[in-house]
Amino acid sequence: MNLPIAIALPTPFLIGPVNSWLLPGEEPALVDAGPRTDAAWEALIAGLAAQDLTPRDLRHIFITHAHVDHYGNARRLAEAAPDATLYAPDIAHARPMLLDLEEEWERQYTFTRRALLASGLPPHLAELSRSRMADMRSYGDAVPVTRWLQSGEYLTLGDGTVWQVVALPGHSMTQVGLHQTEHNLFIAADHLLPHVSSNALLEPPTPGEQRRPRALPRYVEMLRWTAGLPIQQVFPGHGEPFTDQRPLIMRRLQGIEERAALIHTALLERPRSVLALVEHLFPKLRPEEIFLAISEIVGHLDVLEARQQVAFRGETVREYFVLLQEEEGKTIMATIDESFRQDLVQHPKQSYRVIVRTASEAALVAEHCAHQGMTIHHQYRLLPGLALTATGEALLALAAHPAVTHIEPDQMMSV
Ligand SMILES: [Zn+2]
User: Fold this and answer.
1) Listed residues: CB within 5 A of ion ligand 1
2) Do residues 280 and 337 share a domain?
3) Tens of pLDDT along 331-347?
4) Residue 239 sits in the same domain as residue 265
5) For FRET with 254, which of 29, 83, 349, 367 sits at 20 to 30 Å CA-CA?
6) Do 150 and 221 have their domain in common?
């Protein structure tokens, strides 16, 4: 079979050029169409011409998700390609977004403004999201979709190769990819990017739902799922194709863990609003990046909240704090093997050398332990934790510390 051919299209966005993937063959297909700019259009025409094609030769046009850098020029392309079927996912809010419905943009704006205010952004800055969204909208156009797709459907494209549509919610709830299961090829769009981690953007509830989607936890699930696929080559929405997806996915998962740990540590010091966390983590932020930064922080808070490590309080501005044992009437205790726990209970005055695993950076727990008179031997960084010696009763008390997740004997010794 023929491999997909990249046609890189310029965008006015920070991410840089977007890939339009050409699947050559009897029925040429194009995956994604670029933003609505003349520069992107000219690059697309030139890219097709380099393969002796014009838009009129296209038989299939496929849109991967409802972001303007991927669908903006689809209408112009469809008008120049009268014989092409135009496919798009009928997932989450893709349909109203791709049809460019006024009420959907209004819904997106109202949600975004409310979310920014709840994050602690002052009203005059939250208002700016309207002009930012209007600016985004100007790079898109209503997409004349002729076939709406569900996840799991099969499409025959290009040289007769069969591709499966797979939903990849996270970066956008509307995100889909194409998986070629015979040759193990994967058109990932923005689900996997080689040079930058994909943002899991803050989105309003899917129409008909009450709760906004937890984008980053969903993205983590989908990353894990993708790691298990037999993939030979990945064709991303931005950047070069790459071969083994697993190391990249491991790096992305690790990056998410590290940032979640930083947020957890910051909240151990004191409760903070989302904006205060943004200022703490991204002190040199430019104003135009504020929405991305807030999305980023909210996503990681969602990850921590799903693990019951943080909760929020406050009605207008939400302040997040580390979930202590008193909260919600439940005790979250570190895990200790039952026989070891019995040992600690029966010998409260005996000294034990243990490994203590912590939810985030171990330094704060180390400080607490030192203050309690425990002897710290070592601080682990890769898997955060401590090696220390303490009495049975001190260890039982330490198990209730919100940042301690696990306690196990190191080399037990009586002193
Ligand atoms: Zn995107």
Assistant:
1) 67, 190
2) no
3) 456 778 888 989 999 99
4) no
5) 367
6) yes
